[in-house]
Amino acid sequence: MKNEVNGSPVNDKIIRILAIESSCDETAASVVENGRKVLSNVISSQIDIHTLYGGVVPEIASRSHMERIDQVITKALEEAGMTLSDMDAVGVTYGPGLVGALLVGVAEAKAISFASGLPLIGVHHIEGHICANYIENPELEPPFACLVVSGGHTHLVMVKDYGEYEILGHTRDDAAGEAFDKVARAVGLGYPGGPKIDKTAREGNPDAIHFPRAKVAGSAYDFSFSGLKSAVLNYLNGAKMKGEEICVPDVAASFQKAVVDVLVDHAMAAAGEYHVKKLAIAGGVASNSALRSAMEDACNKRGITFYRPSPVLCTDNAAMIGSAAYYDYIRGIRSGFDLNAVPNLKLGER
Amino acid sequence: MLIMALDSSGVTATAAIATPEKIIAEYSVNNKLTHSQTLLPMLEEIRRMAGLEMKDVDAVALTGGPGSFTGLRIGSATAKGIALALQIPVISVPTLEAMAWNLIGREGLICPMMDARRGQVYTGIYRSRGTYMETVADQMAADAAEMAGRLNELGEKVTLLGDGADAYLDRLRETLTVPWEMAPVHLARPRAGAVAMCAFHYWEQGKAVNGSEHVPTYLRLSQAERVRAEKEHSDEQQ
User: Is the pLDDT reported for residue A2 higher than 70?
Assistant: First the structure.
């Protein structure tokens, strides 16, 4: 994704951020102008390496980030047609994520800030995912509700203002994307589970098997997916014992529908209670086609404007980090050279 | 020629600014603090104390491994980031050779040892040649007693240093038959001043690289790779 570097008249000063993301298995760098305009968005995925192991291996992820981070940053600057001297700040994901992976980006960003004199801004990864929605929707401003769903996270969040969040609900056990990975492995589709289930489910009947839609007692907006995962495993074992043939597309479609139903139900319940006019989705699972269409239908029925990023901005990327860093930058937020990676950083914490 | 040198490969975090003639500033902490939080503030502190601007720095030197995987990556990403921002080269020196440089000029063999966990040390054998270190045995991960056996075979007086020598002192005392001694305390841990001096020697040999090419030398596979290799090996044998 590359836009023209413009010379268009802007009243305010143009703020450009070099952003770096290395929280899991994508090494990414981006140049973002005024939080919304992406001048470059370079993502180097390690998925081929981790596929050999059936999932992300933290030590291998850390080593791979180390091997390619300079090249990714250099390419992001080159594609933007700029050098560090055109930047106003360096933004970097410092949590949550895999600590060893995060540390590569954090140490590199701190050193660039130190050597260049550019201010440093540590960014929350989930905040980045939420901000991905600003990039393609210039009109989107807080307040809005956002469902963040990925391999590591499932959060239902009220975005009250830039940088101001209220977490309405989160998962009590597995993240939605984690459930996709585990079920995909169980039915032999392999890693990564999300895209494989999505594709296979298109040939299946989503009502063929009824899997449970879990509710968490006492908290209307929390999620639980481990029961659903167990139900799928039980179904598979039961069918095997009885010698019945398993229709993988039906299992994939029925499982996916169970996940999507819960995500949409919770989001709509929150939308009703908080009188939400705008609802966004974000994170890797936000590129799931069934979730996108079900959420869009549900929003349309209630007159809620629905936002979702393009798939390239749903996956882990640095453009979203550049967007989040910009809104921190204009509010005067800066990080020190003692910035550390925080693997379990909570949204709204600093 | 001004070098900024750093080492965060083990328990020690150490940083220095040096020319071939002078260590302008040096800062070492041997206190198990989180290197990710301490290393950059240390570099900033010595830069300020030395009254230098970053644009005055001609190269970044670091210990490229072996060492703690995370520690190596903190050091490497820091060096790469500085080099990328200033468009200057990186000089990566072997961790153990840089430690041996603490004792340049000493008679006999020099054997640095870093605690490598799992009953091993990262170690190598060096000999001072006055202006440089000769590598007698290249750096490796080894059992401390096994290393003592190699030193016995070489049959020369040896000076040991590093936290690996401290950790396995009893075993070394039992096994070593050659004359040996421990390095003085003030020379027994990694020092960025020595990293810088070792790096000047590498620089003269034309061994500086572009930061993007630098990756740490781990000497060990990740656990997942090891398990996978073992499985493939046993599958082949069946």
Answer: no
Using pLDDT thresholds of 50, 70 and 90, give the confidence band for residue B75: very high
pLDDT digits (tens, 9 = 90+) for A70-110: 999 999 999 999 999 999 999 999 999 999 999 999 999 99
Which residue ranges does chain A devote to CATH 3.30.420.40?
16-132+314-330, 142-309
Token readout for A291 is: 């979730």
How is A108-157 classified by DSSP, letter by letter?
HHHHHHHHH---EEEEEHHHHHHHHHHHH-TT--SSEEEEEE-SS-EEEE
Is A75 touching B (CB cutoff 8 A)? no
Residues 6+ apart with CB under 8 A from A57: A50, B222, B224
Answer for the pair B162, B189: CB distance below 8 angstroms, yes or no: yes
Its ipTM equals: 0.97
| CATH number for the domain whose boundaries are B103-187 | 3.30.420.40
What does the alpha-carbon distance between residue B188 and residue B183 come to, in Å, rounded to a whole number? 5
Contacts of B85 in chain A (CB under 8 A): 84, 111-112, 114-116
CATH fold for the domain made of B3-95+190-221? Nucleotidyltransferase; domain 5 (3.30.420)
A16-132+314-330 CATH pick, 3.20.190.10, 3.40.50.720, 3.30.420.40, 3.40.50.1100:
3.30.420.40
Phi, psi (degrees; rounded to nearest 5) at A197: -65, -45
Q: Specify which residues B27 forms β-bridges with.
A: B15
- Interface A:B, Cβ pairs < 8 A: 112
- pTM summary value: 0.95
User: Domain A142-309 maps to which CATH number in 3.30.420.40, 2.170.270.10, 3.90.79.10, 3.20.20.380?
Assistant: 3.30.420.40
Closest CA to A1 of A54, A45, A37, A53: A37
Residue in B54, B211, B223 nearest the CB of A70: B211
* pLDDT band, very low/low/confident/very high, at A1 (cuts 50, 70, 90): very low
Amino acid letter, A108 = E
